[in-house]
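Our consortium's second objective concerns turning raw sequence data into structural hypotheses that experimental partners can test. To show how far this objective has progressed, the report includes one record in full. It was chosen at random from the queue rather than selected for favorable results. The single chain below, 193 residues long, was entered without modification.
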Amino acid sequence: DLIYKQNYAYASTADITSKDHIRGELFLFMKGIIDAYMHCPTEEKKAAAQVLSYVIKPYRSANNKSYSENTAEITNLVKSLRLEENTQAVTTLGLQDIVDQLEAANIDFNTAFKTRSAEKRGRKAQMNMRDVRPQVDAAYNEMANAINVIYQANEMVQKDEETRTVLGGIIDKINALIVEVNDKLTRRGQGTK
C-alpha cells in the first residue's frame, strides 16, 4: 500500500518553520540593535556598532535566504562575532546573550532540518508505483517466457504429465493473482475496468 498511497507531507514542517522563525527573530533583533546604536550619542557604543555593522554586512539578508543558506550564513556570522577583534564590540553593545541565543537557535533549527532531510532521502529511496511498474513488468515477462519455454519443451519432447500439471498449476495461480490485482486497482479507480 505504501507504493499507492505516499505521504508527501512531513510532521516536522511546523516545528522547522517555528524554529526558523525564532532564529529569524533573534537575528533581526540583533541587527536592529546594531543599526540603532549606529545613531547613539555615546561614541564608544556608536564605534562598537560601526564595527559590528561591518561584520554583519555580508549577512544582512540571511533571514531571507533558503533554509540551508540561512543556516550557513548565521553560522558564519556567529563565528565572525566571536573573533577576538569583535568580542569587545559585542560586549559594549551587550549582545553576548543574543549571540549565544542565536547560535543555539541556529543549531536547534539545523538539527531539526537535517532530521527532516534524512526522512526525505529515505522517502525518495522508497519506490513509488511509477518506478516499480517497469521492474515488475520486466520480471513478469521473464518469468512468463521461462514458464512458456519449459511448458513448450515438455509438450514437444518429454510429454511428462506431472510437469504439465505443475506448470499448469503455476500458470493458473499467476493468472488468479493478476485478476485479483486488477480487481483491487479497479476498485481504487486506478486499473482497467
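The partners drew two points from this record. The chain has a mean pLDDT of 85. The chain has seven helices and no strands. Both points have been shared with the crystallography group to help prioritize constructs.
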